[in-house]
Fold this protein.
Amino acid sequence: MATTKLEFSRGEHIASYEVVDLLDESPLGPTYRAKDDASGKYVRLTVIRPSLGTAADEAELRAAFDRARSLNHPGILQLLSMEKHDDLLFITAEDFEGQTLRSLLHEYKIAGKPVALKEAAQITAQILDALTACHENGTILRALRPEHV
C-alpha cells in the first residue's frame, strides 16, 4: 500500500531511517532528525509533500536536488540523497549540532540586548557568501528564513 503520511513520531521509520525529532516545517514538507539504521549516523530528513512529488514534478525536483547536491560550501548543509519509499519522496542531508539564527535572535531578545553591529555584519557576510555560492551554482533558495540559517 502506498504511503502518503507526512507526520511521523519518535521511533517510527521512514524507509531505513528511524525518526528522532521533528525539526521544522518548510514549504517542501516536514524535516526530521533521523538515524540511519545501517550506519548509525544522524541525518536531516525532509519528507516531500505529495502535491510536490507528483511524477511531473519529480524530474524537476531531482534536477534541482542534483544541482544543490553539487554545492560544496562550509555555510551550506551537504545534501546526501533523494529517495523514494512506497510513494513517499524524501531528501536526506547532513545533520549538525548548532544554533539557528532564529534561536540566536531569540536569546538576544530575552536578554534584552541588541545584536552588536560587528556580529550582525559577520552573520550577514556569511549568509551572502553562501547565497552567492548557491546562485553561481544555479540554485535559488525560496525559503530563506532565520530557521534555515
Notes: Helices lie at 55-69, 101-111, 117-136. The longest helix spans residues 117-136. The mean pLDDT is 87. The CA atoms of residues 84 and 130 lie 29 Å apart.
